[in-house]
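Methods: example folding runs. The two proteins below were folded one after another, and each record is reproduced exactly as written to the output file, sequence line first and structure-token line second.
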Amino acid sequence: MTIVHRQIVWGIALATTVFILLLSVFLLAYPLPSWSLLWKKKILDLPFILFAPGVSILVGVAFGLTSGMYWRKQLEGMTAALTQLGQGRPVEEQPSVSKTQEIELMWKQVEKVQQHVSEQTKLSQKLANERAEDQEKRIQKVVSEERNRLARELHDSVSQQLFAASMLMSAVNESGAAKTDGERKQLNLVEEMIHQSQLEMRALLLHLRPVALKGKTLEEGIQELLMELAQKVPLEIEWKVESIQLKKGVEDHLFRILQESVSNTLRHAKATTLEVLCLEREGTVLLRVVDDGVGFDVESSKTGSYGLQNMHERALELGGTMKIVSVPGKGTRLEVRIPVIREEEENDD
């Protein structure tokens, strides 16, 4: 039974009870000479004995209906508020109807519960964010340590063995021992494969243990990286790097893009020359990397290359652009342009 139905029943019962009591008191005070008068006396063409109870019942129905609608509206508002609390949503404004003192107290308690739930939610989210950040830091630390360990083991074992194999093959090819043309071609092919494996290994080490700036400027970091590569790989490397005042985040992203590009050159390009240019012109930093390698189809490599995607995303994060021009057999040119925002411009904004 709904609250409206219950209030109507209570209203009818109350009105009927009051009518019977009043009628009884009246009859006791003023006794009727004959009970038939109740049937003979008419009001609106209805006998008094029917009219009076009918009016009482109608009054009871009206009272019960009004009261039931009022309490149903109050309870519906409270139910909606509790439902919103249960779903984690903010409670909407209270309905603009008159409230009893008890209902007002209940709404105040709901507001307190909402405030408490909101504070608990904020605290839980804060703790969850802190745990996620701590976990991410721990994962990054473990990954970095593992990458460094793999890089050390590869450098101390596989890289050294490849170097020794390269020296042995060079000695064999340069010896005066008689060899057939087929044997000579096979030995040269083996030496070339070992040489390519060395380049792949150096590129892999550059991926596993990338050189960080660690307090150096971008100019110093680029020069140190290219000088080290020039000593280890058979590439003719030329560079022009200007001193540019950039923020740490911009320098780090540009340096990572250069590392990725150089690594791709070592692994895939089979180039003999490498040119690197980094300078500022008209409020824009230009990073250009050019090689004379085998080149590749840019369109077919965009979707499948994680390295290219990573460089592109780094450029976008800095509000810049990255363009790659490559022709199979004629080399590759990578250009990254990043707008330079000085402190004065930021203050003006």
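Second run, written to the same file directly after the first:
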Amino acid sequence: MQIKPSRREATHERILEVASLALRRNGYSGVGVADVMKQAGLTHGGFYAHFPSRDALLAEAIARAGRDNADGTMRRIARKQAGGKSTLRALIEDYLSEAHLRDVEGGCVVAALSSEMPRQSPELQQAASERVRSLVNLVSHALPPGGTADQAMAIAGSLVGSLQLARTLGSNAQGKAMLAAARNALLAQYASD
């Protein structure tokens, strides 16, 4: 039996959902408390009943974005595995897909925010570091037997960097070509299935 969340818990989750989307869409400096609360259908005054500070909201929103993205990624990987693809191939193809190129708001929080991290508070840097470790862990578990921690870190870095560069070029022929080149290189080097 699933327990229904309290009204306070449901409100807290709604605020996090709005903030996690806004964070990936607008970056750290583009997320204001008043805007998040308004988009969540709440008043600005209610914010401090849920979060002690803006950074606390953003730290939780980073974690929420990471969980949401990981859940979606795992579902898509499972569908590809059912079609006979290896976990690593499915992960690389999913991460470096044209859909992920277009979906900044719903996509990987690491790719959306990592270039901004050096300028953030220690609390936000810690939350983002957890997401990076989670991504490396996901890649590590996708590696075939004999895969190493160094390979997982190299692949994770290549995934994030390639997506960021492709997004910089845009959801056009150049951006898609960047993704395809990175995807093909990673598959050739690490996923020979």
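Comment on the second run: Residues 115 and 164 are 9 Å apart (CA to CA).
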